[in-house]
Each structure stands twice: as C-alpha cells, then as structure tokens.
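Morning F.,

Quick status update on the modeling queue. The single chain you submitted on Monday has been processed. Sequence for confirmation:
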Amino acid sequence: MPVSSIRTLLIEDNRPDAKVIQEVLAESPEAGFELEWVDGLAKGLQKLNSEPVDLVLLDLHLPESRGLDTFFTTHACAPAVPIVVLTCLDDRELALKAVRNGAQDYLVKGQVDRRTLVRSMQYALVRHRMQIQQENPSWKDDLTKLLNRQGFLVLGEQLLRLADTSRGKLTLFYVGLDGWERVDEVHGRELGDAALRTIAAALRETFHDSEVAARVGGHQFAFMSYSFLAQAQPNTKDSFVAALQAHSHRRQWPDPLTVSWGVAVYDPTRPFGLATLMQRAEAQARLIFPQ
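Structure tokens below.
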C-alpha cells in the first residue's frame, strides 16, 4: 500500500450503494483513498479495533443499529477517526444531528458523484485535523478561550487551500465590538473583559465550537466556515444576534454594547490571500446590535 494512501472503511449493508461508492472512488485514484467495505456494524467495529483506519464512511441505518445510535457506537469505538455519515434524502435532519454531535460531514445517497464524494472526504480529514490542532495551547486566547490571531491565521490558511483544491464555499464572518476602548477606559478593565467574553459566548453558541472561530484583535473576532455543498445556509446573523441578546441581558451594562457584523466569501476561481478576505469582511461590517 502506498504511504500516501488514506485507509477508508465503508460500513454499508446495501450492496448497490456500496458498489456506487467503490466505483466513484475508483474514478479518482489520484485522491489516494484506499477503500475497504464491510456490510455490518459489528464487522466495522472489529476492523476499527484491529486495523489502522484514517476515515469512516458510515451508513446510519444498519441491520444491527439504526439512526444516531449507529454513529454514537462507531464514534465511541474510534473517537480519533473522522466519520462521514451516509443518509437517505428523507434523513437530512438526522444527518445534521450527527454532524452536531461529532460527525465531520454527511452525504445523501443517490446524490453522490465523484466530485462530491472526494470533496466531502477531503473536507472531513482536514476539518478533523484542524480540530485537533485547535487544542494547541499557544493558539488559544486566554480571555475568551477562542483561537488567538496566530491560530486563526494558521488554520485559516488550511481552509483557504482546501477551498482552492476542492472548489468549496468558504465564508469569513467578521464581528467587531464597537466602542470597546471606551468601555475599557471609562468603566474599567473588568467590564471591558466581560464584554469580550459575552461576544465570545455568543459566537460559540452560534457556531457550536466548529471550524475556525477566533479573537483576531483587541475587540475583533472572526469565524471561517467551509462547505463543499451548494446548500442553503442558516441565517447566521440572526442566530448570532439572538445569542448575543440572551448573553448580554445576563448583566447590567452602563452603556449598550454595540456590535458590527461583516461577511466575505472566498471565490477559489479568483484566488486571493487570507489577509484580503479579512479586509473585505471588515469593510462590509455594519451595525447589527442593538437592533
């Protein structure tokens, strides 16, 4: 086996579905995925316990297990291995719940083509590696517990390269706490720090600690989101405002918090650097709180 091969385990009881994935990956040998297929959860767990595996493609509905229990059992067996779940068209909500609980991505059966499959698997590997790297203590902001600027720049560049190679959608959200210097100077460092922690708490609630969220300046925050699917995104701004409203009401502020929000989308067909993407998002910033 070549050193560069990515050992992939497909756990799928439906032979035609398994055959589709085998054939699709066979069309992309350059991607480096070496696929092994088993037709049941017990066989899959045995493989995970006895052999090195880099990535799992997991059908959520198997003879021995159904739904999220299938994911939880597999994840508990191999918590260090990224998992992409396979689902039917009617089970998107179930797949999204799996992602919120630790799966890296999901694929809808019947909609799997070569490009979609390879991009999803690449995305799962990169995102999993980034999540591990985020535990680097030198990349943490002590006050907010988000990434600091250094960690954001390193992991942001990785997402940028992923977008370049897989032609996915990369979005950068900018959040600025306007007038933070005045809060800090007039009302004291403790209140200024509390305001920053409030922003960070709202960001964590909105983005569920996924992908790349950071404090990139004294009063500036950024979040990068990557998606290989051309699917509708939730109204992220409204979700953030609702979370910020809830967190800001938990203490009395001498002056209302004022927060700006900007968004920039990276187009891999017209590449540019991370610094430019950050500048574009900040340039688009508009006051969103209080409304």
